[in-house]
UniProtKB/TrEMBL annotation:
SUPFAM superfamilies, per the entry: OsmC-like
Pfam families, sorted: OsmC (PF02566)
Entries under InterPro entries matching the protein: KH_dom-like_a/b (IPR015946), OsmC/Ohr_fam (IPR003718), OsmC/Ohrsf (IPR036102), OsmC_Ohr_Peroxiredoxin (IPR052707)
Record organism: Chryseobacterium kwangjuense
Protein name, as recorded: Peroxiredoxin
Lineage top rank: taxon: Bacteria
């Protein structure tokens, strides 16, 4: 039996400078992302699309979602397998291709997790579990391209 999980986010445009969208340059792309009982996130578009570079943009959040989802599954599988992870850091990268008409899509995402485990004997299994995490990540399973993983495992 499968379960459904429902999510809700409220996105409010805050970029009306007094004349609304009277022209392409007369409004800000600023908005607030609010999830009940959580800290609001100030968003904008990417600076390439007239956005505020100091605020999160959808592309940043998309990449972060893929990385976070992978990490959470990875940590879960490590705990089940007796792999003691003491640190995890990912420098995720993504490429979005923009077409001549202004539309576009992400064409690739590569995760570069650096994982620290407690013992040398855990390294091989720790490396292997990235593949399993990629198979289970809800976000990665929802995109139309393969999310690549280039993991490193350290012992400390």
């Amino acid at each position: 039996m499968s379960k459904e999980h429902h999510y809700k986010a409220t996105i409010e445009w805050t970029g009306n400078k007094g004349t609304g969208t009277s022209s392409y340059r007369n409004y800000e792309r600023s908005h607030t992302i609010q999830i009940e009982n959580k800290i609001p996130v100030e968003g904008s578009s990417d600076p390439a699309f007239r956005g505020d570079k100091t605020k999160h943009n959808p592309e940043d959040l998309f990449l972060s979602s893929l990385s976070s989802c992978h990490m959470l599954w990875y940590l879960h599988f490590c705990s089940e397998e007796g792999i003691i992870v003491t640190a995890y850091l990912d420098e995720a990268t993504g490429i979005m291709a923009e077409t001549a008409d202004g539309s576009g899509q992400f064409t690739s995402v590569t995760l570069h997790p650096v994982v620290t485990v407690a013992e040398e004997s855990m390294v091989e299994k720790a490396r292997e579990l990235h593949h399993k995490a990629g198979q289970f990540c809800f976000i990665a399973r929802s995109v139309n391209f393969t999310v690549k993983h280039i993991p490193s495992v350290l012992v400390k």
